[in-house]
Design a protein that fits this description.
The protein is mostly helical and 89 residues long. It contains 5 helices and no strands.
């Protein structure tokens, strides 16, 4: 179990590195990929960062305005707050 948690943390760290260009070329699509990998395994910080990227339209094809027009945009920040209250990561 400890090894899995380390892998999730490494995935989160890669997302942060790509998001901000720490030690690598800044790349929103790579950041999104690594945040999603960690988020799918329940990491609340990765879920939050992923939500922020969707909120700002970073690394995704549809931006916030187009999602709002279609009526499919979910309040991802609120989702994070709910997850953070119920998850210990």
């Amino acid at each position: 179990m400890q090894q899995i948690k380390k892998n999730i943390k490494a995935q989160l760290d890669l997302g942060v590195a790509y998001s901000h260009g720490f030690g690598v070329r800044q790349d929103d699509k790579q950041a999104l990929y690594w945040y999603r990998k960690a988020a799918e395994q329940g990491n609340a910080e990765a879920q939050y960062n992923l939500g922020l990227m969707y909120e700002e339209g970073q690394g995704v094809s549809e931006n916030r305005k187009s999602c709002q027009k279609s009526g499919t945009r979910r309040p991802v920040i609120m989702d994070y707050k709910m997850v953070a209250m119920t998850t210990d990561s």
